[in-house]
Amino acid sequence: MAIFTDPIRDHANLGPGDSEWLHLLVGDWQLVADLAFADLALWFPLPDADPAHGYVALAHVRPSTTHTVFHSDFVGDRIRSDLSPLVAKAWVSQVIERSADTSGWNTEIAMRVEAVPMVRNGRTLAVVTTHMDLSSSRMPSRLELTYRQCASDLLRMGTLGLWPDFASPTGSRRGAPRVGDGLIRLDAEGIVQYASPNGVSAYRRLGDVESLEGRSLAEATTALLQDRRMVDETLPLVVTGRMPWRTEIESRGVSLSLRAIPLRDANERFGAVVLCRDVSELRRREQELVTKDATIREIHHRVKNNLQTVAALLRMQSRRMQSEEGKQGLAQAMRRVGTIALVHETLSQGLAQSVDFDELIGRQFRLSAEVASPAQRVSTEREGVFGELPSDFATPLALVINELVTNAVEHGLQDREGTVWLKANRSISDDGDEILNVQVSDDGVGLPSGPYSEGLGLQIVRTLVTSELGGSIRWSSRSGGGTTVELEMALISRGA
């Protein structure tokens, strides 16, 4: 479906709710195209143009129940002269107008064209044209006749402002029923007038072996429910066709999604269309994903617990060490293990395999500085936003920041009071890649004047930045004294 939305949004004469109503129409008119076996186009007068002449195509939808009559996209184009009089007539008359000429836009295909004004609060907001291919001359089946009657009823409701309905479901849950999945037409009393073969098959999978026609759909549905305590409260209003809602029923391991579209005229409801779809496989896969997510969270939780156990063992070993250098080494190992454990703890609390890195590093940043400086006063300041980061990116980045902060406190400040800054900035490169820039700075003694050897911490930093994060690292003197370490890396999922 192609759509050109700017004229809807920019037109000055629309009243409150008119733009939303037209967007709701375009969001749901695939239903009508499939029922009508026709292409639909939405026309709107150009700004400051005479409604009798200047129209532009705002949207176009092709049917999935038959072939299209328009193979090229015309959204955004002005109306052709042979169609303009019909659209203009419908705009003014506010009733459905039918073309006497069946040639349409393509002389090779005989088409029946109708112009349907979409009227709301007494004002014509747009005109929908339906284009049906008449070249295949055959006797229409009962299914086709019922489908077309349903489409005609819905379009006529559009001229009365009764369809689309703002109460219609707009959620994006997978498994919304479509015309081809199964259609049931009800009368005003909820009695089935017609059920498509797919609709009958869906109910038979639920356990119903009788014909649906001539029966109350509400009674037929209720008889199939094994556990009525779990019934959705919207079910009675959907299976009687009284409200334009969606519901779902489950019985004998089969899940059936139902959607009702009440049919109304100016005075009363005269029937309804109920779409049904077997969504058993979809729900089974969703349940598998939920189970998988729960399993992944449990794994992260157990990894976190195991890492905390490792840290506790290292702490116990540290207390038995006589060498001060050995104690410091174990303390550094505990900090590194604790940093990894913190990432897994964060992942165990959510469904997504991504981390709110600002929340995680906020705690870790302060903790790293405090643990590295038990006998000195070190302040920490943060600036910028990291945002959501993939877990396979967050773990090495947290380790790198932990090592850089520890290095800044132990070697940059050297047993004196000072401040460590952490700054993050996300930007877009010229190539369209998202770049994360991280700076860790201190106001300490600065870089050594001569050559120096890197300790284990800085070796870990270089390895993680280049191999795990695919980034670069640079040391420089900070303006005002001290050192700045700058990291730059592209935010590309490591699994890509």
Automatic annotation (TrEMBL):
<dbReference type="InterPro" id="IPR035965">
    <property type="entry name" value="PAS-like_dom_sf"/>
</dbReference>
<keyword id="KW-0902">Two-component regulatory system</keyword>
<dbReference type="InterPro" id="IPR003594">
    <property type="entry name" value="HATPase_dom"/>
</dbReference>
<keyword id="KW-0067">ATP-binding</keyword>
<dbReference type="InterPro" id="IPR022066">
    <property type="entry name" value="PdtaS_GAF"/>
</dbReference>
<dbReference type="GO" id="GO:0004673">
    <property type="term" value="F:protein histidine kinase activity"/>
</dbReference>
<dbReference type="Pfam" id="PF07568">
    <property type="entry name" value="HisKA_2"/>
</dbReference>
<dbReference type="InterPro" id="IPR036890">
    <property type="entry name" value="HATPase_C_sf"/>
</dbReference>
<keyword id="KW-0597">Phosphoprotein</keyword>
<keyword id="KW-0808">Transferase</keyword>
<dbReference type="InterPro" id="IPR005467">
    <property type="entry name" value="His_kinase_dom"/>
</dbReference>
<dbReference type="GO" id="GO:0005524">
    <property type="term" value="F:ATP binding"/>
</dbReference>
<feature type="domain" description="Histidine kinase">
    <location>
        <begin position="298"/>
        <end position="493"/>
    </location>
</feature>
<protein>
    <recommendedName>
        <fullName>histidine kinase</fullName>
        <ecNumber>2.7.13.3</ecNumber>
    </recommendedName>
</protein>
<dbReference type="InterPro" id="IPR011495">
    <property type="entry name" value="Sig_transdc_His_kin_sub2_dim/P"/>
</dbReference>
<dbReference type="Pfam" id="PF12282">
    <property type="entry name" value="GAF_PdtaS"/>
</dbReference>
<dbReference type="InterPro" id="IPR004358">
    <property type="entry name" value="Sig_transdc_His_kin-like_C"/>
</dbReference>
<dbReference type="InterPro" id="IPR013656">
    <property type="entry name" value="PAS_4"/>
</dbReference>
<dbReference type="Pfam" id="PF08448">
    <property type="entry name" value="PAS_4"/>
</dbReference>
<dbReference type="InterPro" id="IPR038424">
    <property type="entry name" value="H_kinase_PdtaS_GAF_sf"/>
</dbReference>
<keyword id="KW-0547">Nucleotide-binding</keyword>
<keyword id="KW-0418">Kinase</keyword>
<dbReference type="GO" id="GO:0000160">
    <property type="term" value="P:phosphorelay signal transduction system"/>
</dbReference>
<dbReference type="Pfam" id="PF02518">
    <property type="entry name" value="HATPase_c"/>
</dbReference>
